Amino acid sequence: MFQNEKPREECGIVGIHNAPEAAKLAYLSLYALQHRGQESAGIAASDGTRLLLHKDNGLVAEVFSETVLDALPGRGAIGHVRYSTTGSTRTANAQPLMANYHGGQVAVAHNGNLTNTDELRTTFEKRGAIFQTSTDTEVFLHLIAHSSAVSFSEALLLSLMRVKGAYSLVLLRPDCMIALRDPRGIRPLVIGKLGDGYAVASETCAFDIIGAEYLREVRPGEIVTFDDTGMKSETPFAQTDPAFCVFENIYYSRPDSLSGVDRRTIYEIRVDLGRELAREHPVPADVVVGVPDSALPAAIGYARESRIPYEMGLIRNHYIGRTFIEPRQSIRDFGARVKYNPVRGVLAGKRVVVVDDSIVRGTTIGKIVAMIRRAGATEIHVRSSAPPWIYPCYYGVDTPSPEELIASRLSVEEIRRQIKADTLGYMSIKGLVKVMPGHLAYCKACFDGAYVAGKPQKFTKEIHEG
Amino acid sequence: MFQNEKPREECGIVGIHNAPEAAKLAYLSLYALQHRGQESAGIAASDGTRLLLHKDNGLVAEVFSETVLDALPGRGAIGHVRYSTTGSTRTANAQPLMANYHGGQVAVAHNGNLTNTDELRTTFEKRGAIFQTSTDTEVFLHLIAHSSAVSFSEALLLSLMRVKGAYSLVLLRPDCMIALRDPRGIRPLVIGKLGDGYAVASETCAFDIIGAEYLREVRPGEIVTFDDTGMKSETPFAQTDPAFCVFENIYYSRPDSLSGVDRRTIYEIRVDLGRELAREHPVPADVVVGVPDSALPAAIGYARESRIPYEMGLIRNHYIGRTFIEPRQSIRDFGARVKYNPVRGVLAGKRVVVVDDSIVRGTTIGKIVAMIRRAGATEIHVRSSAPPWIYPCYYGVDTPSPEELIASRLSVEEIRRQIKADTLGYMSIKGLVKVMPGHLAYCKACFDGAYVAGKPQKFTKEIHEG
Amino acid sequence: MFQNEKPREECGIVGIHNAPEAAKLAYLSLYALQHRGQESAGIAASDGTRLLLHKDNGLVAEVFSETVLDALPGRGAIGHVRYSTTGSTRTANAQPLMANYHGGQVAVAHNGNLTNTDELRTTFEKRGAIFQTSTDTEVFLHLIAHSSAVSFSEALLLSLMRVKGAYSLVLLRPDCMIALRDPRGIRPLVIGKLGDGYAVASETCAFDIIGAEYLREVRPGEIVTFDDTGMKSETPFAQTDPAFCVFENIYYSRPDSLSGVDRRTIYEIRVDLGRELAREHPVPADVVVGVPDSALPAAIGYARESRIPYEMGLIRNHYIGRTFIEPRQSIRDFGARVKYNPVRGVLAGKRVVVVDDSIVRGTTIGKIVAMIRRAGATEIHVRSSAPPWIYPCYYGVDTPSPEELIASRLSVEEIRRQIKADTLGYMSIKGLVKVMPGHLAYCKACFDGAYVAGKPQKFTKEIHEG
Amino acid sequence: MFQNEKPREECGIVGIHNAPEAAKLAYLSLYALQHRGQESAGIAASDGTRLLLHKDNGLVAEVFSETVLDALPGRGAIGHVRYSTTGSTRTANAQPLMANYHGGQVAVAHNGNLTNTDELRTTFEKRGAIFQTSTDTEVFLHLIAHSSAVSFSEALLLSLMRVKGAYSLVLLRPDCMIALRDPRGIRPLVIGKLGDGYAVASETCAFDIIGAEYLREVRPGEIVTFDDTGMKSETPFAQTDPAFCVFENIYYSRPDSLSGVDRRTIYEIRVDLGRELAREHPVPADVVVGVPDSALPAAIGYARESRIPYEMGLIRNHYIGRTFIEPRQSIRDFGARVKYNPVRGVLAGKRVVVVDDSIVRGTTIGKIVAMIRRAGATEIHVRSSAPPWIYPCYYGVDTPSPEELIASRLSVEEIRRQIKADTLGYMSIKGLVKVMPGHLAYCKACFDGAYVAGKPQKFTKEIHEG
What we know:
homotetramer, alpha+beta, Glutamine Phosphoribosylpyrophosphate, subunit 1, domain 1, Rossmann fold, seven-stranded antiparallel beta sheet, 21 strands
């Protein structure tokens, strides 16, 4: 298949505490988070005395059937979706991970990436540990299993003290569920009320589908335990500046989800980004179009601020399967054609502003520019609601190597020439921060290289998971 | 699964003449027409001496693999996608249909519905014919097979003289391809140039994906033959007023397809419909939202004309599988939640105009109104870019029975009360016609009951196909 | 996969009349007849007013699930299994065939082969008939559909008068079931009592699995109708000498089935064949082994008559799937090894008599001789309980072309040299007839070329089906 | 499905060292060992630097495709088949198990059962180990991983010193393969020469299919290492009396495999068992039949010694799938009917000796007696070539609980009455030993309760694996 040229969504996690048919509710919640990972899906459920697990490669709707869900009884469940990695079918790396150890059973679903697991892995291997996966999450499980702490919560705490990086975690034990975020709160995690019980999820859109009510986010560094007595909060870590992933707001999260910071919708933030973009990079034009679906809100914002009409100039085909058969004969820009098609009538003879939100390698936007040009546009002005993506992410986003990041290799003018746009404007980091709720508390390492939670000593694709 | 409450898309057809890997190109074209039918897909190919066929229930990407396409060699191919009928898995009814008869082999892909097949079927059965399917298309094949005409083209012509109703047909013979439309041109069919050969399809979006260039539509009543000598046109029928299905422009066709009449995009027509709707049913409001994805252009038009801001107030989940597991516990408006989610920030405290394009039973729009109300909207004004759907379609659209059509049972005010909207405005037929390209030449029987190509004596769901 | 070198089993048919869960009983009966056909399986069932059909490529256990069988309700059902043809997956040719025609619905399951269908097919095509399959059985359906007779039974009778060849048929109508055999009774068909109803099947082993009691065979030329009033017999054809397929008794039928002629088991007939073979072709030896599984009874007979010990010298692997992956590196006689393995201890240093029942191309027996030789046998004496297979079968057995039949090309001595046996003895036709129940009444055209029911004018593989 | 009433075959293991397409050869070898396990199959392969693994539930032919095998490159591979446990689909328990630990990668395939893993498991869990399966084999991997030994071979040796029970193991490292048996050699393991390399397998039949030449068995307590320098043997354990599983010779092994002790085929041993059985329990009768397929050699032996004719009185259906649909209406002895059918002609009016080799719960033999009685036998004399099975096996055979073992609950006379046989005779332990090659060196704990390698403290089904 043609290469995916958008940043790969990271993982999505959910948890259900004290609700009938918890596994079915986890399934629905995962389904609402499907945009965060299409490679694999899994649910671990507790019937009060033991954990059961089902996970497999595939979409949520493919991995789970009525029969499978009925075999996951109980009032507690956690779930995980993982992004798609081309060609790899490592079912072993699907989550939740589950372990039997001296403290009993535990299952874990992880969104993020630990940066010091190489060293820990080596340490544990020296002490006799066996690893089944290449994931950092398994290292975390070994930390818990090797802890000499008497209680699970102490073991968990001691383990958390040892890891660095980004992590939003949901853990399931036969008798309780725990949700927590790293001290900087790099990856999202929110809490909802669900009847007599609770739900947690990467985004609030997972609450809407099951009728849960959004309460608040899990705070950076907070450990929330859900058990018979209800919900308990601890904040054991030393206070640190929060650093929420700014790309969640720009691109990853669903527009109907609420920002954990100020309860605005992601949609509104993106419209504002578009407005700021219009202020930063105005251009005389006849029409504003967005690259569907994620960049449409920014395009709406750009149009509104610039008073240039907004149009749907590109149609996205939503029926794309995982494999796509390409004819031997060459069809120009085949990959982009399968995914997008221009609406000639709103492009022909027009000066077009194209708003995108995530230029990675530059190949897709290049094909889109060519496509719009062939549809008759007289000028094409590309605007990116994200600043240039220069640095790899070590905190849970599947990143191409720096050589593949076009903005890491080329200047803005060089990129403009390569994608054959008439003008090209990227959102400034300053402008970005201005628009974000709460303004300063963001991780924007992909744009400025400031790795707030450290870098791994050696960073391989293999280890970088979910 | 929850009931589909949108009008079911009818069928899509394609044909490729004189191109290498014709079956693969037909596959890609079908894929671009997937919105016209998700139940089954099929391709018949000619290697110059004989026809080969593959068809099955499922999406195009599920039915065809590289291996299957490689087993359909040759430079000619036709294809078909069929809409989904709940619960039914009648593979036999998938198309193209293929027959061996005294004149050799012929395959046919049909979009539309014949209205006098009951009588013809009885006649043929009396003469010894055996039927394998319940489709009107099979009756048409029997007409050809029973013809005493010497040549295929004569047999075809004589057969066409005998049928009534709506039909766009692509026929494949080992040595040629034929594309034709009924005298009124009720269903669409367009011709494209593809290298040394030709393509035909229900919509021009099927040309874009394979790099074919749109030439013109097959004219109402025209029979176009593609063979070694190129493309030949005949117009054997007596002249009749054309009557193109107006609902194609309102709802069925993809917005990036071109109207056969004036080469405007469907998108532009729909934006104009929205503008007209705003003129007919203005209302003071804060925001205009469309029901995604089909009603978005009309919403954009309404917003533009009314100068009320356009927002994406509803997000559609595109990962829905064919089966969806519902929890036993009740979740309010579960079906609508799985498909749509409101963007609270743009709805809360606002007067909202909701633009839809196809109110059938009224249940979905009712749930959407409730969903927007719960998101905090203070007023909800529903606007339909289609007039009230009162009469069943006998020309190829899967229609609920009249009792199920809410506009057939209730007045506009009664519907408004039932869906709990503050105001409700339907596009007038007059306004609709005004916006359409060429103005008068449309079938709008579903709105006015004027069945331009006759009604079947008895009309059963079983016979009504694709 | 390696080439199948045994004669392909022909089809198996069953019928259930007036029993609860008729489709499930048909399924079990088909399962007992699986040795007669592994390519496809199908069941048509009647709920009293209409017929429903399910058929597909695959084994009985693969084609039918609980869900599928539950969707085939009613007290009447017929079923069919069809042999495997390498590489072909023509689902269309699976049976039962079903038709809607002026007389209503009819389904038919056919074992045998009609020899004059080419002419009939041409005739019908001239009259406008459309064919969906390449089977002779479909021609038979057209005969019924084109009949001007008022009643179904008359139409059936008139149709039967027009066909030549071998046929055992079970037909299902919404209100009755009909079982019949051609005037010579070439292919088997037997009747059993099943509670208040009846069962029919190709062999009695199909009765044992469902607890039906064997009554009698359907007599050559007899038409048996099962309806509300019970079982009615007609024998409308002019009296003809019966000619039951002798190869059924030698090879095709299951050994636990009863001969229709004298109620001996097929097993006993084969033991007697082995005895006769020992009398015709005695040889001093240390051990008698049979080629498993079909030739074991003949080997037991040979051992008993010759007083040479019987041993299981070859073990057959029963887990062979439909596809088998072969390494690129050559493994000597790989195909035979996958299927058979010698038991060295009973072969090494011994003079071995190997009894087979069906030498077609000679390649398998050649590999078996080589395998036994490598296992240390000092002499190998091949004995065939069937006479040399010289002529193709036109009556329902999948026959290689004459050039592929080794006995058609080579003399017995030449065959012996080619398969590298020390001696080779084939059963004589005279000896064969002597052993058969009732002695004279057999079709042995494959051995003597006496085609009792005519030959087709042109005989192609395509037309020759089940 | 109806309950499986034969002792469940234990696991089968294979290894290929230094041969092109090692994984394909492992696949073929596993296929020849399919009778030892039908639940799951797996292969780990080494490309010289790292190990790759594929395993899944299903038959060998279902689990492996050409594509999967091509993704397992290299000249070294080990494989495993595991028996079927009703209803359980614990893919996690499939083998080979693979681990990444401080010493690198290792994969292991195990036939047998360790008896002291509960204690070891607890010990390791206390030290922080995480377990993924419930198998004893995983405990063994933890032993290796926790060893402080510098070299792999030392770690292996120290680990072996710690385990008790029955084990034949094949281990794969990126650069070598190791095959070993427990000091008593309870489970089988043999070595073959394969071109420039070697093969190991549970039985010699696995060599025949790939053209490997049988060299010798791995001796009890022997560790054989295959690496660049060829094959090296160590025998580090203190000398102990060997105790080969006698049931391998009676029932589990394929008849065409060679005994590791004296190179007789298993077939010959079973014929001798039948002869001994006839001497111990003679009876006047007309015919001897065996329960197919495993008891046929013993029946041949009984017939030969008693000079009563041997006949195939029961036919076994080989097309049984894993699931079988049962009608709601009762069919007497349905389960047995699906699997076996009597050959009436050789049973009716006869005094019948029925030879079986493995009476577990007594239900199947009871149904077979009823079936033969209904077929008209006047007397039925059951003879078992195995002594009464009284004690559970802790060494790798799936054993019902003692209450389910009919011989554990009832005397021989009581069993006879329950199964409704006229007489019943079991082989004596003394007679059994007399017939076995080498006479004394056998584990017969299932018959005499003498557990040569200890008993587990608590023995649960969960832990008892392949």
